[in-house]
């Protein structure tokens, strides 16, 4: 099998408990650095799926699982922060469809209980639940084949790796050169009470909305989109009513005054990249990626749509020309996801909906990517949050594109 164009996989064992950004950094930075370094410098854009195994779902029945949204998005934010810092240090571009040398990284949470044992008689199958997070067996069935598989060289990492290979048996013939052990970091786990994990379970929603420019889709955008997807209440396959994920994407006219505006991607390209990323974290193809099939997108002017998981999840990207978008044209939206920068916009949305006599949206704010919290070996200047944010921003990416073109023209 030709491996050109196939994504690579990094299996990360259970996150440390209790956890914060510094603890996550100590545990996950070494394996992330090793995997990203190995993929750096490719003549083509490469893709890395970072699968984090954690017992994050709760509930007795498969069809009615729940999760703590705050806990889940915080974990994703912490990992994307580490990825951003490492890629900045290694001069690796991280955006979707970024061209040669880019490592397009996506973080996926995989529900797995380390106490669970699988026998050779187990026949894993693709099985969805009430959330977008799937268990390890389902992940192994739906995500394959791979270019390289990185696994952490520690007891928990080895156990996870062996269990994954058992569940993925027969999905892909793997050569020894594709299986790469990487050093793990320092972890410490303190046993937690079973009841404590159930205190902050989040009610999922049928219709979730968020907005942004999504120019040169980077880790900050990926966090926002992943956090929104984690709120979706995914119905059964036989349900007549899918859950909806509505993404408002700023129209081209509103971006003409941006810095390096000539390098802003078109609305169509930005919408396609949003759907392509969501396809990575939402779809569960029965044949994996063997056919290299891309998501089928229904494209109309300012309205791109795609469906995932046998039609149970519907994604809609709509062009917006103001701060409100569909939140003030659709009363049935349930939840709004915002960042720290758009917090005031969330309040404005609910004020406008109140004027229309509509119910307020439940507003969820994602964590920020903050280098200060993992600044053990970075210079003081580089660890300032605003400085770090500017380095991973769409503006910074456009500036790099402008500089590269100017350099190319100077040499021609």
From TrEMBL:
<keyword id="KW-0548">Nucleotidyltransferase</keyword>
<dbReference type="GO" id="GO:0004140">
    <property type="term" value="F:dephospho-CoA kinase activity"/>
</dbReference>
<feature type="domain" description="Cytidyltransferase-like">
    <location>
        <begin position="210"/>
        <end position="399"/>
    </location>
</feature>
<dbReference type="GO" id="GO:0016779">
    <property type="term" value="F:nucleotidyltransferase activity"/>
</dbReference>
<protein>
    <submittedName>
        <fullName>Phosphopantetheine adenylyltransferase</fullName>
    </submittedName>
</protein>
<keyword id="KW-0808">Transferase</keyword>
<dbReference type="GO" id="GO:0015937">
    <property type="term" value="P:coenzyme A biosynthetic process"/>
</dbReference>
<dbReference type="InterPro" id="IPR004821">
    <property type="entry name" value="Cyt_trans-like"/>
</dbReference>
<dbReference type="Pfam" id="PF01467">
    <property type="entry name" value="CTP_transf_like"/>
</dbReference>
<dbReference type="InterPro" id="IPR014729">
    <property type="entry name" value="Rossmann-like_a/b/a_fold"/>
</dbReference>
């Amino acid at each position: 099998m030709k491996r050109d164009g196939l994504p690579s996989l990094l299996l990360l064992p259970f996150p440390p408990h209790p956890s914060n950004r510094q603890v996550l950094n100590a545990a996950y930075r070494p394996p992330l650095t090793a995997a990203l370094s190995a993929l750096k410098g490719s003549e083509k854009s490469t893709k890395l799926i970072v699968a984090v195994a954690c017992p994050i779902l709760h509930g007795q029945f498969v069809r009615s699982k729940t999760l703590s949204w705050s806990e889940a998005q915080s974990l994703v934010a912490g990992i994307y922060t580490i990825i951003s810092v490492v890629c900045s240090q290694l001069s690796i571009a991280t955006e979707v469809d970024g061209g040669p040398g880019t490592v397009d990284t996506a973080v996926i949470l995989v529900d797995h209980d380390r106490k669970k044992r699988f026998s050779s008689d187990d026949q894993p199958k693709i099985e969805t639940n009430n959330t977008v997070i799937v268990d390890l067996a389902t992940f192994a069935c739906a995500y394959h084949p791979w270019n390289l598989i990185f696994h952490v060289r520690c007891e928990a990492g080895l156990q996870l790796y062996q269990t994954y290979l058992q569940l993925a048996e027969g999905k892909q013939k793997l050569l020894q050169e594709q299986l790469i052990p990487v050093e793990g970091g320092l972890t410490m786990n303190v046993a937690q009470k079973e009841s404590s994990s159930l205190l902050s379970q989040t009610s999922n929603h049928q219709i979730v909305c968020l907005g942004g420019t999504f120019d040169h889709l980077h880790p900050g955008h990926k966090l926002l989109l992943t956090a929104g997807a984690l709120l979706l209440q995914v119905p059964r396959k036989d349900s007549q009513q899918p859950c909806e994920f509505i993404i408002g994407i700023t129209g081209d006219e509103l971006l003409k005054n941006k810095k390096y505006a000539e390098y802003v991607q078109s609305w169509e390209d930005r919408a396609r990249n949003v759907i392509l990323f969501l396809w990575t974290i939402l779809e569960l193809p029965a044949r994996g990626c063997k056919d290299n099939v891309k998501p089928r997108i229904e494209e109309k002017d300012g309205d791109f749509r795609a469906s995932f998981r046998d039609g149970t999840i519907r994604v809609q990207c709509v062009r917006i020309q103001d701060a409100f978008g569909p939140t003030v044209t659709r009363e049935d939206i349930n939840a709004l996801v915002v960042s720290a920068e758009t917090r005031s916009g969330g309040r404005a949305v609910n004020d406008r909906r109140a004027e229309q006599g509509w119910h307020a949206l439940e507003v969820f704010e994602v964590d920020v990517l903050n280098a200060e919290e993992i600044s053990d070996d970075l210079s003081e200047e580089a660890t300032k949050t605003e400085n770090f944010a500017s380095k991973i921003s769409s503006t910074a990416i456009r500036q790099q594109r402008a500089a590269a073109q100017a350099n190319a023209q100077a040499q021609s």
